Amino acid sequence: MEFKNVSVVKEANVYFDGKVTSRTVVFESGEKKTLGFMLEGDYKFNTDAEETMEILGGDMSVQLPGESEYTLYKKGESYVVPANASFEMTVDKYVDYCCSYKK
C-alpha cells in the first residue's frame, strides 16, 4: 500500500534512545499518520488523540487501558487506543507500523 499526494516531515520522531523512530505523513485533508519502526524492548506511551496502530511487520504484545492481560498483535492486525490514555507494549524482535490519529 502507498499514500499519494502527501507531505512528509523530514525530521524523525525519536523515542527511547532511538529504539523507536517514526516520520510524520500529512495528507491534503490535514490528516496525520506516522510510519515507524520499533526495536526490541518494553515501552509505555501516552495518547492525546485516539490512535489506530496498524502492524506492517513483526509483532508486539500490548496491554491496552483497562485490560489486565497483554494481547499479541501480528502483521496485518491493528488495535485502537483511546484518547488521553496510556498503554504498554513489549516488542521481542521488531515492529514496522503505521499509526493513524483521529481528529
TrEMBL record:
Gene3D superfamilies found in the cross-reference section: Jelly Rolls
UniProt-listed Enzyme Commission number(s): 2.4.2.1, 2.4.2.2
UniProt-listed Pfam families: Ppnp
Lineage, top ranks: Bacteria, Bacillati, Bacillota, Bacilli, Lactobacillales
Source organism, top-level taxon: Bacteria
Reactions catalysed, as given in the entry: guanosine + phosphate = alpha-D-ribose 1-phosphate + guanine; uridine + phosphate = alpha-D-ribose 1-phosphate + uracil; a purine D-ribonucleoside + phosphate = a purine nucleobase + alpha-D-ribose 1-phosphate; thymidine + phosphate = 2-deoxy-alpha-D-ribose 1-phosphate + thymine
PANTHER family found in the cross-reference section: PYRIMIDINE/PURINE NUCLEOSIDE PHOSPHORYLASE, PYRIMIDINE_PURINE NUCLEOSIDE PHOSPHORYLASE
InterPro entries assigned to the protein according to its UniProt record, in alphabetical order: Ppnp, RmlC-like_jellyroll, RmlC_Cupin_sf
Protein name: Pyrimidine/purine nucleoside phosphorylase
Record keywords, A-Z: Glycosyltransferase, Transferase
Gene Ontology terms for molecular function: guanosine phosphorylase activity; purine-nucleoside phosphorylase activity; thymidine phosphorylase activity; uridine phosphorylase activity
Originating gene: ppnP
Role played: Catalyzes the phosphorolysis of diverse nucleosides, yielding D-ribose 1-phosphate and the respective free bases. Can use uridine, adenosine, guanosine, cytidine, thymidine, inosine and xanthosine as substrates. Also catalyzes the reverse reactions.
EC supergroup of this enzyme: transferase
Family: Belongs to the nucleoside phosphorylase PpnP family.
HAMAP family: Nucleos_phosphorylase_PpnP
GO cellular component term of the entry, any: cytosol
CDD domains reported for this sequence: cupin_PpnP-like
Regions that span the bilayer: none
